[in-house]
Amino acid sequence: MRVLKLMILPFVISCLITGTATLNIQKNRKIAIRTLTYFVSTSLLNVLIGLALVLSFHPGDPTVKAGAAAVQSHDVRKVSLLDGFLDMGRNLVPDNLFQAAFEQTFTDYVPVTLKYNEVKNSTENSTGFSIVHHTSVKRQLQFREGTNTLGIIFFCLIFGSVLGTLGPQKDAVIKFFTVVYEVLLKMLMGAIWFTPVGVGSVICGKIISIGQLSHTLTQLSWFIATMAAGVLIYQLIILQLIYFIFVRKNPYKYYLTFGPSIVTAFATASKSAAMPITFQIMDEKAKVDKQITRFILPIGTINMDGTALFLTVSLIFIAQMNNIYLGIGEIVTVVLSCTVASMSSATVPSAALVLVLMLCSTINAPAEDVSLLYAVDWFVDRLRTTNNLLGDCYACAVIESISKKELKNKSEVIIKFPCHHLFYVLTIYE
C-alpha cells in the first residue's frame, strides 16, 4: 500500500502533462468542456440519489445521538463554508510548487481574548470602569501535512496545455514524461503481487481498532444501509445505463474489468492509491484511448461522486437527529452546496468529514454531531471511494465515445474504383 501511494505524485505529473500535451486542448477544448460537464452532472446526480434515499429511509433518529454520543470524542470546530472555498482557491494556485508536494494550506481558527474598559455609572455624578474580557476567534493561514494534489494538477494542466501548443521542440519533453510513465508501470508490477496481503492487513487492522464494534454498527446501521444502497444503485444501475446509452456495449463486462482497482480503492480508502492499477487496466484491458485516460484520470480529484452522495446523506442525517425542519429552500441549498463542496474534497481517507463540518452551517446543524460519523467512517469511506473511482473510469469511456471526431482528427479522401462490382475506400489520415 505504501508503494502504491509512493507512485501517486509522479503518476499524476507524468500522466497529466503527457495527456494534456498530446490532447492539445487548444484544438480539443470540446473534450475538456465535455469532461467538466460530465463531472458536474454525475456529482449532482449522486446528490439527488442521496437526497431521495435519506428522505425515504430517514436514518436520523434522536435516540441514535443519545446512544452513540460517547463512542468517539473529537475536537470538532466550526468551519466557515466561505473559508473552505477560499482555501480551495489558495491550494489551486500554490506559491511554492515544491511545498505543494507535501503540504496544504488551510484556515485555522485561533481563540483570542480581548480586554477593554467598560464604563459603568455608579451614581448620577460619578462613573466607574471595569475590565471586560471578551473571547473572539482569529483566522490564520496554516499548513498541514498532505500532498496538495489540486495545486499540482492545476500547474501540470497549464504546463501540458501550453506545451501542446509548441512546435516540434515539444516532442522531447513529451517523450521524457512518457518514459517516466513506462518506468512507473514496471514498478507497479512488483507492487501488485503484494496487493492481496496488503488488502487483508488493512481491513483487519481497521476492524480490530474499533472498540464495541457491534454496538456502534447497531446504532448507526441505518446510516450505513442508506449509504450502501446509494452506492449500489449508482454503480449497478445508473453507471451501467450511462455506459450503455453512450457506448452501446455490455456495461457489466466493462465494470468487472476494474475489479483489482475497486479492491485496492476499497482497502486504502483512496482512489489515488489505486490510480497506477487503474491506468494499467485502462491501457491493457479496457483499451481506452490514452489521450483520454491521461487527461481525465489525473483531474479526477474534482469528480467525487461517492463524496457527493456521502455529504448529502450525512448532512440530512444530522438534521434528522436534531429534528431540524428542512423546507424547499434548505433542500436546494443542501443540493447546491454538496455538489460544489464535493469537487473540493481531497483524495485521502476521511477527508469528506471536514466538508461535512463546513456544510453544517448551511442548515444551522450542530457541527459537534459530526463526531458520531467517525465511528463508522472507516467503512463508509471505503464505499464512497469505489464510487469516486468508477466515476472516473466510466467518464473515460463516455468522453471517448462522444469525442471520436476530435480524437481521430482525420480527413477522408474518397477514391472509388470498381472491382467486381465493389468499391474500395481509401482513407488518408493527417
What does the model show?
It comes from Ranatra chinensis. It holds the Pfam family SDF. This protein is globular. The chain has 19 helices and 4 strands. A two-stranded antiparallel ribbon has the order 1-2. Strands 3-4 form a two-stranded antiparallel sheet. It has helices at 2-6, 8-23, 29-57, 62-68, 81-92, 149-164, 170-192, 195-209, 213-219, 221-247, 251-257, 259-268, 275-286, 290-296, 305-321, 328-342, 352-360, 374-402, 404-408, and strands spanning 103-121, 127-145, 418-419, 422-423. 62% of the residues lie in helices and 10% in strands. The protein has 430 residues and is mainly alpha-helical. The two termini are 43 Å apart. The chain folds into 2 domains: 2-102 and 146-423, Proton glutamate symport protein (Orthogonal Bundle); 103-145, no CATH class. Strand 3 and strand 4 form a beta hairpin. Residues 67-77 and 410-430 have low confidence and may be disordered.
Short description:
With 430 residues, the protein is mainly alpha-helical.
List keywords for this structure.
2 domains; single chain; 19 helices; 430 residues; mainly alpha; two-stranded antiparallel ribbon; two-stranded antiparallel sheet; Proton glutamate symport protein; globular
